[in-house]
Write a structure and sequence with these properties.
Elements lengths: L1 E3 L5 H12 L4 E5 L8 E5 L5 H7 L5 E4 L7 H15 L3 E5 L11 H16 L2 E7 L10 H7 L1 E4 L11 H13 L6 E5 L7 H12 L4 E4 L2 H10 L4 H15 L9 H6 L6 H7 L5
Helix pairs in contact: 1-6, 2-3, 3-4, 7-11, 8-9
InterPro entries: Ergot_Alk_Oxidoreductase, NAD(P)-bd_dom_sf, NmrA-like
Protein name: SDR family NAD(P)-dependent oxidoreductase
Pfam families: NmrA (PF05368)
Amino acid sequence: MILITGATGNIGTALAKQLAAQGTAFRALVRSPKHIPGADTLIGDMSDKDSLIKALQGVEKAFLLTNSSEEAEQLQSNFVDAAAAAGVKHIVKLSQFAAEKNSPVRFMRYHAAIEEKIIQSGMAYTFLRPNLFMQGLLGFADLIKHTHQFYASIGDAPVSLVDVRDIATVAAIALSQPDHENKVYDLTGPAAITHAQIAQFLSEATGKSISFVDVPAATMRPALIQAGFPEWQADGLLEDYAHYARGEAAAVSSVIEELTGNPARDFASFAREFASFF
């Protein structure tokens, strides 16, 4: 039996659809009642290890993903402890590109810490390390639609953005097929592009003149907070973008094509598919 967490988010929803489509039995751990086609849904709280152990009974493989929160590292640590106690054999964890325990980026440090905890537990692991999500741009869709602009502190550094649907496909493969134990997969799109190129692709897809405006971090932080991000998350995003601006997210991986048999989705295709949002 497979259990997936984060089943109602972008990646989890796509993963659940793929598992259901291929006829793979799975459970979905949710915080509130929700119907997920093909899944045996269980209500559970990742802050409660006992409820997690109950949900994990009979589970051999688990997909670990949590929402971004200040408690994410603790919640994932709870899950790893519960999985080990319940006899789970293999965890597929959604991590982050360039996760490393000494990273200046807090999100990467916490992912690296959980990766290490899983390794030390003795359970088999597959760590999925995706780069910046293409779908993240949808969070700025209203801004782009009304102002024809978007902003970030990144300069002209290229980033190999990845489509979350490709991440979900790799996750489904790692969960349902053999020979993915104790592997680390960097997941990227087929090319590294700048934010100015992102604007160009959006312009071509929408027929509008959309531009990217590079802004200093000192300007971006209050804008993020005004947009509703809590301070810890705004600061973490600034650390992420400093990482991108240093050119540390430009590497391109062939893993998606190697595992799925299909090329990773490119941003131009994403822009055309989601043009109506912008």
